Every structure is written in C-alpha cells, then in structure tokens.
Automatic annotation (TrEMBL):
Job description of the protein: May act as a GTPase-activating protein for Rab family protein(s). Involved in neuronal projections development, probably through a negative modulation of ARF6 function. Involved in the regulation of synaptic vesicle trafficking.
Name listed for the protein in its UniProt record: TBC1 domain family member 24
Gene: LOC107556663
SUPFAM superfamilies: Ypt/Rab-GAP domain of gyp1p
Keyword Membrane in annotation: yes
InterPro entries per the UniProt record, alphabetical: Rab-GAP-TBC_dom (IPR000195), Rab-GAP_TBC_sf (IPR035969), TLDc_dom (IPR006571)
Lineage: Eukaryota, Metazoa, Chordata, Craniata, Vertebrata
Length: 558
C-alpha cells in the first residue's frame, strides 16, 4: 500500500518521511483525537498512514448524489498510470493561470495533475473560478494510488454538500468575497500587519487577494502537507487561520529587518510576501506556523459565514460576479471627487482601509456637514437616516480630529421611543487622527473571553463539522457581522455601540461615553468606555468646530 500511494512522489526530496512503514491508526471515532492528531502532525512521517487517513476523511464527506468517482475517470482517460505530457492536457480557464506546484512530485507527475484537472473541468461544468484547485490536486496526488483515485478525491471535495460547509471556492463571486472576508479578518486580528500593508502598498485589497495562494501554492511542501491535514479535518476556516499567521510572521520579519515604511506599487509588496512564504522554512517550522494559526481566537464559523454572505451581496449589488479589471473590484477613493474640510484625501484613504471590505467598494458620499446644514441634531438625523453605515468626522476648535465608523442606520434609535437606547454592531469603531492615527475596535475583538458565541457547540471546540443554523439576522442586511445578539455577553456594558435622542448622540458606553455630542452639535465630551476600551479621543471636554457625516454610495440601509 505504501509503494502504491507513493508512485507519483520524488522520494529523494522527502527527507525522513517513511515510504514503507505500516499505516498505524487510520480510523478515528473520537473527533477530538482526530483533530489533535491532525494539528500535531501525527501522520507527517508516515506516508501510507496519511494516505489511508485522507481516504477515510474524503469518503466520509457528504456529497451530491451523482459525484464522479474513479471508475468515471478510467472510462474517460483509460490507463491512469500512463505518463502524461502536460501540453496534451491544458489547464482549464477556471484556474486563472495558476501553475501546478511541484510539491516534491516527480517531474512527469505534473502531467498527471493536468490530466486530472482536465477531467474535472469536463465533469464539473459549473466551476467558473477555482485557482486553488491545481495545488489541492497536486497535494492529493501525493497520497493517491493512481490518477483515478486522485480524481475521485478532488471530485468529493468539489461536490461536498454539507450545509454551511465548503472546501473550495468555485465561482469568482465566492473567491472575491473570500478575499474581502480575509481583509476584514486582517483588520480585526492582525492590526499591526494591516497597518504595515496600508503604509507600504498602494492597494491593500490587491495584496490580500493573494491570501489563498500563500497557503495553497507558495508554502513549501512540508508546510502545505501539514495544512492539508487540518484542512481536511476542520474545513475552510483553517485556510484563513494559516494565512493570518503567515501575515503575522511576515510583519515580524519586516519589523526585525527595520525596513523603512515607504509606499510602493502593490505588485512589489505581493512579490515580497510571496518570496517570504516560499522561504518561510528559514525562520518558522510547520509546528510554529500552525501553533500561531490556532492561537488566533477567531469568531465562529457562523459569524464568518454571515460576513461572507454580506460580502457576496455587496459584490452582486455592484454587478461584480465574474472576473473583471481590478479597479472595479478594489477599494478606491477618488481624490478628484473627494472634498472634506476635516481630512485630506490621503487621510480618508487610510480610514477607508479600516472599514469592512464590502463597504470599501463604495465611494464616500457627504451626507451632512455643520458648515452647510447648520448645528442642529434634527437636521443631522434627517440627512443621515436611511444610510448604513456612516462615517462621522469631528474637528475641534483646538484642531484635534477624531471620529467613528457607525455600522447601523440612525433611524434605529426610534425603536426606543424617546428613551435613549443603544443599538449597532461590533463593526463600529472609533479613531483619532492626531498625534498618530489610532483605531479603537469593539473590546470583544481583542478580548474574546468577554463573550461566548451563542452557539453552544462551536465547531472549533468539538472538532465536529456543524451545520450552519439559520442566522439570527437576515443575511441580506448590510451589517450582520458581530451583532451583539450572537453572543452571550458577560455584561451589556461591552455592547453599547451608538445611541441617540432629541437631546444628544452617544458613541460607546459603559462607565463613560467615548463620544457625547449635545443637541446643538456644539459641545462634546470624550472619555474611556468599556465597549471600545479607548482613551479620550481628544481633549475630554471640547467645542466642535466642524462635524461631517459621510455615507457609502450605493450602500443604502435595507
């Protein structure tokens, strides 16, 4: 069995991996043990054991009734152990030019990957964009007895129909929304790395669009194989984790090198990260990479799925469902059309880099400014209602600048009648521009121990694949992610995002208000609050020289 499942491998490159050892344990009834073995690299040194475990995992995937198997491949291609000329099997268009990684395969085995992918294209005509398929196929070929078995394994991953679970993006819409979702996760879990990207790359989302390639394609084989172990056990979320860990290590290397933070073309930054990932073994071991990946306390699969749905909806609303020129997909603040009396075009671009990716597709639209509409809270509401989200900018009479990204339509305040009641979601954040730009997010993001996901048996805890329950919010709503209703919060003080009535507006609550503004939009206060755990954003008591509210063009509240 060991020889059969290593027929495509160049064993001279495999180091101390055993080709002939007995498989050992291959069947797992205890899901926690399975997850622990996958994460710890239990199968890394035993080729036949890893092969047998993979076959068990792939056969256990719930799939569509009609899923092509090994027999179908043999009918199409014939002898599946023949040497293949890659040029005879051109790669499908849906791989978007992604080359087949060598991954310690024999040179002639690349032709086998081409042949499998060509057959996949014929059997799955609905796939329109799947650049991760060549590396996934090349990895699975390692642990396959022949091409037909590899074809069946890939087919099962593509045909998996378990609710709420996906293994591979198969359309440009799914792929691009995953890139946006990754960008959102970087904002929240890798703020230092994101700050580096904003400082060095002209187009941050273009850099983040490479995230899947870092994990499936650029990582050396010994790393990619370990990622595949946990990917097949725990699912797509693992890819996010590993990519975030890669970005954290990249930032650490840049900091250690003391590189000057100069703006450069995004292609140069992308090339630099790719080179780092391809040579990651010089500074990080596979164990360290996975340890870092699983130390990141991501929210539940349900929350990430809600965000993915919202990002897909924003792309659909803009007609971005197939690949097109990048400038139609990436964030862009047009300096020629942007005019604020508070911040410059460069500063608004920096603020734009913090907002959720689905709104970064939108142009800023001035809704209200005290210089034109006057200092009236009623006029503030009348101009801002119906827009979601909004961005508030404040300049004080002392020249200090601060503000807030507010996830929810101000009309929500009416649900509380005349009573001042809080609303909004954990996507809200505060910021100040001077002396240095700083953002202050929902405290639960940095301290997840303050809240537990409302779903009592999260897939991260049990290791068991969970079906996605019906979301508590309608996924067509523009701000579903991080809604406080999804969490069992230890204190309501940690979810007081925004409030307003005829007398005042308040941003952030709990033992103080991050921003309090009076009904004349003239006087304000700022202090530490529990919801954002922020310092005062400017002088604690301040006079407002100018207040602006910006909306996001084409992002009307639903």
């Amino acid at each position: 069995m060991a020889v059969d499942c290593g027929v495509f491998v160049d064993w001279s490159q495999m180091g101390d991996v055993s080709r002939d050892a007995a498989p050992g344990k291959i069947e797992y009834k205890d899901l926690k043990e399975l997850k622990q073995h996958a994460r710890s690299g239990q199968w890394a040194k035993n080729h036949s054991q890893r092969s047998a475990v993979y076959q068990q995992l792939l056969k256990a995937l719930p799939c569509r009734t009609v899923t092509p198997d090994a027999a179908v491949y043999r009918d199409i291609v014939g002898n599946s152990n023949s040497k293949r000329n890659p040029s005879a099997y051109p790669l499908p268009e849906f791989v978007d030019g992604t080359a087949v990684p060598c991954y310690c395969l024999k040179a002639e085995s690349v032709g086998s990957v081409h042949a499998v992918l060509s057959s996949i294209a014929g059997q799955f005509p609905d796939i329109s964009h799947c650049p991760s398929l060549p590396p996934v196929t090349a990895l699975l070929l390692h642990w396959s007895a022949d091409e037909a078995q590899c074809f069946e394994s890939v087919s099962r991953m593509l045909a998996c129909n378990e609710p709420g679970r996906r293994l591979l993006d198969q359309t440009f819409l799914a792929y691009q929304s995953a890139c946006m979702t990754f960008g959102d996760l970087v904002h929240k879990y890798c703020p230092a790395a994101h700050k580096l990207m904003v400082a060095t790359a002209t187009d941050v989302l273009e850099v983040y669009s490479d995230w899947q390639r870092w994990v499936l394609g650029d990582l050396p084989f010994s790393f990619a194989a370990r990622v595949m172990d946990v990917y097949l056990v725990e699912g797509y979320k693992v890819l996010y984790r590993v990519a975030l860990a890669i970005l954290k290590f990249y930032r650490k290397q840049c900091a250690a090198a003391g590189s000057a933070l100069t703006k450069q073309d995004s292609a140069a930054v992308r090339s630099d990260i790719q080179a780092f990932v391809q040579n990651i073994g010089k500074s990080v071991t596979p164990d360290k990479l996975l340890e870092k990946a699983f130390s990141i306390r991501l929210f539940s699969r349900k929350e990430i799925t809600l965000l993915q749905l919202a990002n897909e909806k924003s792309l659909q609303q803009k007609g971005i469902t197939v690949k097109q020129k990048r400038q139609n997909v990436q964030l862009a603040v047009n300096a020629d059309n942007f005019s604020s009396e508070i911040v410059s075009a460069k500063e608004i671009r920096d603020i734009w880099s913090w907002i959720p990716e689905r709104f970064a597709l939108c142009q800023p639209q001035l809704l209200f400014t005290t210089s034109t509409h006057g200092c009236s809270l009623n006029r503030f509401y009348s101009h801002c209602e119906g827009y979601e989200p909004t961005l508030m900018l404040i300049r004080t009479t002392d020249g200090e600048v601060c503000g807030a990204f507010l996830s929810t339509d101000w009309e929500e305040r009416k649900r509380g009648g005349n009573k001042l009641s809080f609303f909004g979601t954990g996507e809200c954040f505060l910021f100040r521009m001077k002396p240095e730009m700083e953002r202050y997010e929902w405290v639960v993001i940095k301290h997840p121990e303050l809240a537990n996901a409302a779903q009592s048996t999260d897939d991260e805890q049990t290791g068991a694949p969970q079906s996605l329950e019906k979301p508590a919010t309608d996924p067509s709503h523009l701000s579903p992610f991080l809604s406080a209703r999804h969490f069992n919060l230890n204190s309501r003080n940690t979810s007081m995002f925004m409030a307003g009535n005829v007398d005042s507006i308040i941003i952030g609550g709990g033992e103080g208000n991050a921003l309090y503004i009076d009904s004349e939009l003239n006087h304000g206060r700022t202090e530490r609050c529990l919801t954002f755990d922020n310092p005062p954003l400017c002088a604690e008591s301040f006079q407002i020289a100018l207040l602006e509210v910006w909306g996001f063009k084409d992002a009307m509240a639903s």
